[in-house]
Design goal:
Layout: H1 2-13, H2 21-29, H3 36-61, H4 74-87, H5 100-110, H6 115-142
Helix pairs in contact: 1-2, 1-3, 2-3, 3-5, 3-6
Amino acid sequence: MNYLIVFAVSFLSATVLPLGSEGVLLYYVSEANSAIVWLWFWASIGNTLGALTNWYLGRYLAQYEHSKWFPVSIKSRQKAEHFFNRYGIWTLLFTWLPIIGDAISLVAGVFHTPIRYFLPFVFIGKAARYALLLWGQSWLLNG
């Protein structure tokens, strides 16, 4: 059950919902019956799939760009496109960042970033963040 909760919270926190998966992950790491590797794995998978949800939203919303209700102006979108094209798929490594990460994954969908690039880069960034978090906690507790 611990793994399912970590997965679900990690998934939801990678979408536009304001949740923090780090606290939940660290809470379950402190329980003796949870394997750290599996918690890391399910948090990384959940967070990556949450970013994939944003990617799909970006792909879907792009068709409404010229609608009056569209939340981003064409000028702002062009600015984001310039930035994304300049730094390319490497920006996907930073989808773990709060707020900005959600925008990066959404923009990647709007600009039709191939999923074969999106998934590995996003997973690497998110998995590295969780690994660093777990290592830091272990280092602090064990000196």
